[in-house]
């Protein structure tokens, strides 16, 4: 589908220049220009938004007189060359405070890494301390880490995983709901949810048994959540799955409700894995030191080809900050036993944020405030090394246990084929991959995620000083991808996110996916009286949907809105490439329209909103990404067209409810038209509910729904 998007964009945007440099260089170039078009004016734009109630139009009109002077609206968008690489370059607009360590002008070589503490945190030269080592105890009892990493697969099993389809089974858990268990190697044993368990049953590394209840209770009290156990019901069921080392897809993670308890749960799992793995290495170091000379054995194979074991992919620096704080809290057994954290001050300076003063009248939805809290720069990466009672931030990747990074941060270090300076060997032995808030990457750049997945668990090009006598056979056989656990968290189910879980996860232990179907759609939150017409388009295949939708819109929908009486028509376009295609068509047909996308400058936004409100322009093209990053209320909407169902279901009700912002009140002539196909089943169910979706997909007729307020 992405290939089709690229094709349709290239066909429609005649102004787009052909690619002249590598994708990587384009990325670096657009990173420098993309934020300038937006973030420099962000505060002023927010101030204007704050004054919407009465002064907005006056301030915009004065600005219009000073700047517009009949200029083309396009001048306020990014140059078309950058539009063509929009999917590649969408570094978040608000990334003003990016530190120089990730500045593309400085390149990866200028990145700060802590070399001072190298020997201190080296696994090769350290030995386990008796009082903190519980590795021998773990040897005597069956624990999930030992079971998972200790399994020796046979070639016929690997071949089976590559050729056979997965068998699956369903079950229902009290908190998670409907679960699908799938596996290739054996008939999936349905896992039962433990209603209650003792922390000691989880085989946590010794310090975590003490710190977890304390840290989690602090979180719950700060979130005003009460729980008698040391786990919330959600955490208990999620950790029950994580601790079996199965892959997990949970598509109901939201920043507003359960984001923090999920983050703490996967931090516990990742830290437990790292501590156990490092304890095994340090214990074996001591055994090797004390063994008789001349004795060679394979029993000390306890490492990967490179040291990094856990990769956490998060969208913003604020997320990385919270993860590191969680890890520190989980390592500190008591308040008087603080762990030593290297470069902590630098980390707080680069990943923290100063409280911003916002205009008093500026109101954004609660979910927006939760997602965009703190430092929202989306270009970063940091290595973390953990050794017993110490933590090293900014560790070089090849000396790190955990890497925390954004997709863009990974993309710029992995590079593109043909680039001289690129590196992905550090991904060769990742044992746990955590992708949090995956839905946000759909708004940033999904290609970065795909690029990362293609470079996971490949054989390294260099040895990086590894002692091959200590490397596990699974890594030497290039089977590490079959042992990697992937934890995928998202706010929604989306075909592209599902594809990551289905096509890039090969865990021999199997997969667990939460598959709850929405019974009531977001249309129930529409508070204005409005007829909703869902118009079905027939596409022969998934790859033809893009072109079919465009032709359907041009031939059957747009003619009904060309009449001047159908003024104040907002067209909501989720895909940027569809937006470019429509914009070019509207220009060609000389339609009376304005357009706003994520690259439009402040002056262009003000001008377009003013023209649209006053009826001087009949149509307004609006991209989903603009709405995601700004959440401005567009006034003056009388007719609404969803060119495609929104990615986030609650955006449907948000856009519809903008109609009540019109001063004239409810209008009997208001309309809402939605285009959909049979391939939009998931998005449709999230908007209208499962029962209506089933009826709509069975019938080939247009569906009319009338919403009379709170429904």
Using the coordinates shown, work out and report the CATH topology of the largest domain: Rossmann fold
CATH architecture field of the largest domain: 3-Layer(aba) Sandwich
Which assembly state applies to the chains in this document?
Answer: single chain
How many strand elements? 18
Overall shape: elongated
- Rg (C-alpha, Å): 27 Å
Q: Determine the mean pLDDT.
A: 81
Count of discrete domains: 2
What composes the largest sheet?
11 strands, mixed
CATH superfamily of the largest domain: P-loop containing nucleotide triphosphate hydrolases
Structural class: alpha/beta
Helix content: 25-40%
CATH class of the largest domain, named Alpha Beta
Notes on the protein architecture:
By secondary structure, the chain is of the alpha/beta class. It folds into two domains: 145-355 and 365-514, P-loop containing nucleotide triphosphate hydrolases (Rossmann fold), CATH 3.40.50; 522-708, 3-Layer(aba) Sandwich (Rossmann fold). Helix content is 38%, strand content 13%. The protein is built from 27 helices and 18 strands. Strands 1-2-11-3-10-9-4-8-6-7-5 form an eleven-stranded mixed beta sheet. Strands 14-15-13-16-17-12-18 form a seven-stranded mixed beta sheet, sandwiched between helices. Strand 14, helix 23 and strand 15 (619-623) form a beta-alpha-beta unit. Helix 16 (407-414) packs across helix 18 (446-454) and helix 26 (681-688) packs across helix 27. The radius of gyration is 27 Å and the shape is elongated. The two termini are 35 Å apart. InterPro entries: P-loop_NTPase, UTP25, UTP25_C, UTP25_NTPase-like. It comes from Nothocercus julius. Interacts with CAPN3; the interaction is required for CAPN3 translocation to the nucleolus.
